[in-house]
Amino acid sequence: MPVVINVQKFGSGSPEETELIAGRFAKQLKPSDFVALNGALGAGKTRFASGIIRFFCGDITPASPTYSIMNNYRCGGAIVNHFDFYRLKTAHDLENCGFFDSLEGKNITVAEWTDMIKIDYKKYAIGSYYVVNIKICDEKNKEKRHIEIKKII
Ligand SMILES: Nc1ncnc2c1ncn2[C@@H]1O[C@H](COP(=O)(O)OP(=O)(O)OP(=O)(O)O)[C@@H](O)[C@H]1O
Ligand SMILES: [Mg+2]
Question: Can you list the domains of the chain with their CATH numbers?
């Protein structure tokens, strides 16, 4: 039974701030860690992933993997695999796109829309497993987001 051992909550007021929060979070990431990103369409999952990728790779603009399913970044010593499960349906699709292979290697794996496919991710995560939920929280302020980061053991 997965247990949440650490919860951090942030308010973000802009896409740049979301990247900053993600960049600070990324400092603790190590090979084999897995970060699951969830939240509604346009919540900021790709922006958060970009903050992680930019922490390792510097000033690049990572593309959304919605159509490629996975984008791979090799920067310095780090390998970051950025997945998007939005167009996938089954655990078999996860197998086919190399998700389980990514978890097993020395990669940092980041995946958007993990709640589209209901499997016990904890079971497959070899390193630390984090779940990030991003919520659009204020109809009036279009750039306001709540970001919750949980570490799960
Ligand atoms: N505080 C914020 N944090 C992140 N993005 C924000 C914020 N405020 C506004 N935005 C805007 O919301 C959009 C978020 O897009 P992004 O592609 O990151 O979302 P997503 O959750 O990955 O969407 P999808 O479900 O399509 O994958 C961008 O256009 C971004 O500029
Ligand atoms: Mg996205």
Answer: 4-152 (3.40.50.300)
